[in-house]
Amino acid sequence: MIRKLYPYTRGYRVFILLGVLCSAAEAVFEMLLPRVMARIVDVGIPMGDTPYILKMGGVMVAMSVISMALGVGAAFLAAVAGQGFGANLRQAQYDHIQNFSFRNIEKFSTASLITRLTNDVNAMQMTMTMGMRLMVRAPVMLLSALVLAVTISIRLSRVFLVAMPLLAILAGLLIRHVGPLFRQLQERTDDLNLVVQEDLSAIRVVKSFVREDYEREKFQKRNSALRGISERAFGFVTLGMPVMMLITYGTIIAVMWYGAPMVSSSELLVGELSSLYTYITQILMSLMMLSMIMMMLSRSVACARRIAEVLEEVPDITDDGADPGAKVADGSVDFDHVSFKYSAESGEWNLFDIDLHIKSGMTVGILGATGSAKSTLVQLIPRLYEASHGTVRVGGRPVQDYTTEHLRDACAMVLQKNTLFSGTIRENLLWGNEHATEADLEAACAAACADEFIHRLPEGYDTDLGQGGVNVSGGQKQRLCIARALLKKPKVLILDDSTSAVDTATDAKIRQAFATQLPETTKLIIAQRITSIMDADLIVVMDDGRILDQGTHQELMDRSEIYRDVYQSQQEGVDLHG
Ligand SMILES: Nc1ncnc2c1ncn2[C@@H]1O[C@H](COP(=O)(O)OP(=O)(O)OP(=O)(O)O)[C@@H](O)[C@H]1O
Ligand SMILES: [Mg+2]
Fold it and tell me: How far is 360 from 437, CA to CA, in rounded Å?
C-alpha cells in the first residue's frame, strides 16, 4: 500500500528526509540528558565540585535547546510534507476522475468519490505528519534507551524481559480488533455522505414533498451507525491506555524493588538508578507510541486502499486506438446490429440488435415509452457508454476511431438531466465553446429561442444563475442547455427530451429554427409528444430496448398500430384541453 502511494510524495521527499533526520537527532539528544544528569548526581554532588556541576548543567541546557530546535524543525517539516502529500493525492485523484466514463463513476458513486477526495486524504495527511515524527522517535527512543539502560545495569534490565512481551501482546490484540473497525468506519462515512450529498442537492424536492421528517430520520440512522462504530473503534483504543500504564508503573515498581538493595550495597549509584527510571518510562512510552502508530496505520491503510482504488481504476473509455487526426467528416450515424447492457453481469440486454442508419443532415425523431432505452440508444453516439456488440459509426467511421474530444465536439448532446453551473449566463454558454464570439452567442440563443427571455433580464447575458441555475425556470434552463450545445456547431445534435418543459409554440419555433439554421446538422430528437417529431425525416419507435418500427409519420400512421394509438391518444388530449 505504501509503495502504491509513494509516488505522490513527489516534491516533498527532501522535507521527509530532513524531518526524519531531525526527529531522530531530537530523540537521541533527549535520551542522553538523563546520562548527564546522572553524572551530576553521582560525580558532581558527592565531590562538592560546583564548577563541574555548573559545567554539566550548561551542557544540559545546551542539549535541551538543540533538542527543542530539532523538534520544532521536525514538526514543521512533517507538517509541510503531510500537507504536500495530501494535496498531491487530491490532485491526482481529481485529475484521474476527470477521465472516468459514466460507468466508472457509477461504480464508485459520487458520494464515495467525494469522501475519498476529502476524508480519506485528510487521514493520509495526518498519518504522514504524525507518523513522520512518531515512527522515527519511537524506535530511536526505544533502542537508545534500551542500550543505555543495559549499560547501566544488565541485571535490572531483565525486568524488560517480562514487560515488553506483555505490551507486545496487548498491542497485537488491539490492532487485530481495531483494524476491521476502522475499515467499517470509512464505509459508514461513505453512507452518511451519500445521504448528505443526495438530499442536500435535492432539498427542493424534499421540501415540496414535505419529506423532511423522513430525511431527518434517514440521516439520524446513518449518523448513529457512524457514531456507534466510532465509539467501538476508539473505545478499544482508550481501553488499551490504562492497561499499558499499569504495565509501565508495574515495571517501575519492580526496578525500585530490586534496585534499592543494590544502591545500599553500593552495586549501583543513586544517579544511575534515577536515570534508569527515566529510561524505563521512555522505553515503555515508546512502545505505547508504537502501538498507537500501528493503530493509526491500520486506519490509514483502509483509507490508502480506498484512494488507491480510485487511482487504479482503469477508465473504460479511452483514446487508445483512436487516430488523433481523425475528424468527424459528416453527420451520418449508423448502428450496425448494436447490443448493449449497463452491467456485464446482467442477463438482460438494455439494447438489443439495433440496426439504424441515419444520413447526414436528417432530422430523426425517437419515440417510446419510458424505460424503452431511448436515452441509452443516443448515449452510445458520443460514446458516453461503449456498445457491447456491434459497431456505432459516426461520419462513416467507428466512434472508437476518434479521440473523445473530436467525437464529442462533433456530437453535441443535451442530456435528459442537464445542469447549468453557478456563474453568469455567458459563462455557462461559453462552457460549450470557449472560443465562441458574441455573434455566435446571439445566433445560438436565437435558434434555441433563449434570446427573448435573456433580453428581458436586466443584466442580459451577465445575469448570475446561482448554484445549478436556480434562477431560471425549467423551460428557460432547457433552452439555455440547447444553446450551449449549439455553440459547439455540432455535426450531430442530440436532444434527449430537451423541450419537455417548453411550451408547444416555442417548441415548434425551435424546430423551425433548426430546420432553417442547421440544415447540415443531423438532429436526433427524443420526445414524448408526437407533434414534436411529426415532420421528422425518420421516426424511430422504441420498445423495451428494440426498434419496433421506423419510417416517416405517414408510413407509420399507415402501418403501425401502436404509433396510431399513441398519436390518437395524444390528439384526444389536445382536443380535451382545447
Ligand atoms: N445508468 C444505468 N445503469 C443501469 N441501468 C440503467 C441505467 N440507465 C438506465 N438504465 C436502465 O435501462 C433501461 C432504459 O433506460 P433509458 O433511460 O434508456 O430509458 P428512456 O427510454 O430514456 O426512458 P425515459 O423516457 O423515461 O427517459 C431502463 O430499464 C433503465 O432501468
Ligand atoms: Mg431517457
Answer: 26
What is the residue-wise DSSP string for 445-487?
HHHTT-HHHHHHSTTGGG-B-TTTTTTS-HHHHHHHHHHHHHT
Please give the single-letter amino acid code of residue 543: D
> Is domain 333-576 classified as CATH 3.40.50.300?
yes
Question: What three-state secondary structure class fits 397?
Answer: strand
376 Cβ inside 6 Å of ligand 1? yes
Phi, psi (5° rounding) for residue 33?
-55, -50
Distance CA 481, CA 428 (A): 9
C-alpha cell at 18: 530532513
Domains of the chain: which residue ranges? 2-312, 333-576
- What φ, ψ does residue 207 adopt, rounded to 5°? -65, -40
The tens digit of pLDDT for each residue in 402-437 reads 999 899 989 999 888 878 888 889 988 998 888 889
CA of 350 to the centre of ligand 2 (A): 12
Average pLDDT over residues 239-243: 81
Q: What CA–CA distance (Å, rounded) separates 13 from 50? A: 48
Whose cell is 536515570? That residue is 275
DSSP state of 327: -
Instruction: Look at ligand 1, atom 27, and give the residue with the nearest C-alpha.
Output: 370
Ligand 1 proximity of 375 Cβ (cutoff 6 Å):
yes
C-alpha grid cell, residue 320: 487508445
Which residue has the least CA distance to atom 28 on ligand 1? 371
2-312 carries CATH number 1.20.810.10: no
- Residue that the C-alpha cell 544502591 belongs to: 263
Q: Kindly calculate the radius of gyration of the chain based on its CA atoms and give it in whole angstroms.
A: 36
Residue 575's pLDDT is 55
Is 365 close to ligand 1, i.e. is its CB under 6 Å away? Answer: no
Q: What 3-state DSSP class applies to 317?
A: coil
User: Rounded to two decimals, what is the model's pTM?
Assistant: 0.77
Which residue carries 530523540 as its cell? Answer: 27
Residue 149 corresponds to which cell in the numbers above? Answer: 539502560
pLDDT band at 76 (very low <50, low <70, confident <90, very high): very high
Determine whether the shortest distance from the Cβ of 406 to ligand 1 is under 6 A: no
Which residues lie closer than 8 Å to 24 by C-beta, 6 or more apart? 136, 137, 140
Residue nearest to atom 5 of ligand 1 (CA): 342
Count of residues in the chain: 578
Look up residue 491 and give its three cell numbers.
Answer: 455535426
Residue bearing the CA closest to ligand 1, atom 3: 342
